[in-house]
């Protein structure tokens, strides 16, 4: 039996092609994982934004209807024209709370909740609301921590 030349591949050729395919596969997997991770980040940011907006809108709605407003150290107390128990907004367990109900979800932690009240020129009162919602562990990487500031000013109806 004689040797047949030119048919088949040498071991070096097979190893080279295998190495290239492994590098290609690793790169493709890294790209796919990055895309999935980016989608997760976008979803977390969307939820964070929705939580903050909900809290601001709920407080704003009640401030507009309030008869009297009192600001304290991180607290806002609203007296409504129809009477009843005053509404108290405050920071409770790293969440914005109204009485025993929470206005922000468990996804993020609220920090820097402040209320400032001033008397307007038309006999109304103006409240400025500020807080920051943060998601992520403080020990984690910078890209794993998301933070968003929320602020608005709202006035009661003129008397």
Present the secondary structure layout.
Elements: H1 11-65, E1 68-71, E2 76-79, E3 87-92, E4 95-98, E5 101-102, E6 109-119, E7 125-135, E8 146-155
Antiparallel strand pairs: 1-2, 2-3, 3-4, 4-5, 6-7, 7-8
How is this structure best summarized?
35% of the residues lie in helices and 33% in strands. The chain is an alpha+beta fold and 159 residues long.
Mean pLDDT: 84
User: Helicity level, as a percent range?
Assistant: 25-40%
Distance between the termini: 110 Å
What characteristic shape results from the CA principal axes?
Answer: rod-shaped
Q: Report the radius of gyration as a whole number of Å.
A: 29 Å
What's the arrangement of strands in the largest beta sheet?
1-2-3-4-5
Classify the secondary structure makeup into a structural class: alpha+beta
Hey, roughly how much beta strand do the residues contain? 25-35%
Largest sheet: 5 strands, antiparallel
The arrangement of helices and strands along the chain is HEEEEEEEE
Separate helix tally: 1
Residue stretches low in confidence (pLDDT < 50, at least 5 long) are none
Total beta-strand segments: 8
């Amino acid at each position: 039996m004689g040797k047949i030349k030119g048919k088949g591949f040498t071991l070096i050729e097979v190893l080279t092609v295998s190495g290239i395919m492994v590098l290609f596969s690793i790169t493709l997997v890294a790209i796919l994982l990055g895309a999935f991770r980016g989608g997760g980040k976008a979803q977390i940011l969307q939820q964070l934004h929705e939580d903050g907006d909900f809290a601001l809108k709920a407080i704003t709605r009640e401030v507009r209807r309030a008869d009297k407003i009192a600001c304290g150290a991180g607290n806002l107390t609203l007296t409504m024209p129809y009477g009843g128990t005053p509404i108290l907004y405050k920071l409770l367990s790293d969440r914005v709370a109204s009485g025993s109900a929470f206005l922000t979800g468990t996804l993020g932690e609220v920090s820097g909740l402040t209320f400032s009240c001033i008397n307007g020129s038309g006999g109304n009162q103006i409240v400025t609301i500020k807080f920051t919602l943060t998601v992520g562990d403080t020990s984690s990487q910078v890209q794993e921590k998301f933070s968003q500031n929320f602020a608005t000013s709202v006035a009661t109806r003129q008397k």
